[in-house]
Write a structure and sequence with these properties.
Structural class: mainly beta
Strand content: over 45%
Number of helices: 2
Number of strands: 10
Shape: globular
Helix content: 10-25%
Largest sheet: 8 strands, antiparallel
Length: 192
């Protein structure tokens, strides 16, 4: 008889969107993409390559790369520095390097160590993104909105982000859930 570790079924709480932090660098400082944003999703865009070898009838697929995109929508609130920076790219028709930004995705649910008033570090990924502004919209008497997509330029950089000092540190760090998974993998195997 096979033994199963029932602990994996204990936690049923799904992540809520506010447990993923999004930060955009503006004038050398990290600014939260929060108030005003109604959508800021992530589409990894995995690219695959399929091959059917002569001795097989079914193809085999490999993931060969990613075309990561972050589609967004926001209400135009000029006092919010992150969204106003993205707004200006479209309004002023920025191209090339002028439309590129540093963007950090922070797993706020996956802290590294114990958060305090002086440091609160979480697993994070830093991207260089190219901002494609698609539309500004707003009918009479309605809010002005904007939509677009941040396109990843190159590979993400793994690291941690301190939400107190607002700094990113490159490196391989383990958060709470990484450590739990690692401990589980190193623990007892299911036996018959």
């Amino acid at each position: 008889m096979k033994k199963f570790n029932l602990q994996i079924f204990a936690g049923r709480s799904a992540l809520i969107r506010n447990m993923i932090g999004d930060y955009l660098e503006v004038s050398g400082k990290m600014e939260l993409c929060g108030i005003g944003f109604t959508k800021l999703n992530e589409s990894p865009g995995a690219q695959s390559d399929s091959t059917t070898y002569i001795n097989e009838t079914t193809s085999s697929s490999d993931i060969i790369g990613y075309e990561t995109e972050f589609p967004y929508e926001f209400d135009a609130i000029p006092s919010q520095k992150a969204l106003y920076t993205l707004w200006l790219d479209g309004r002023d028709h920025h191209t090339g390097d002028d439309a590129q930004h540093v963007f950090v995705k922070v797993d706020l649910f996956n802290p590294i160590g114990t958060p305090s008033k002086t440091a609160a570090e979480c697993k994070a990924r830093k991207f260089t993104v190219s901002n494609e502004v698609s539309e500004f919209a707003g009918d009479g008497g309605q809010k002005i909105t904007a939509s677009g997509t941040l396109h990843a330029v190159g590979d993400p950089i793994q690291g941690k982000f301190d939400t107190v000092s607002m700094t990113f540190t490159e490196g391989e760090f383990k958060g709470k859930y990484d450590l739990e998974l690692e401990a589980e993998a190193g623990g007892e195997e299911a036996t018959e």
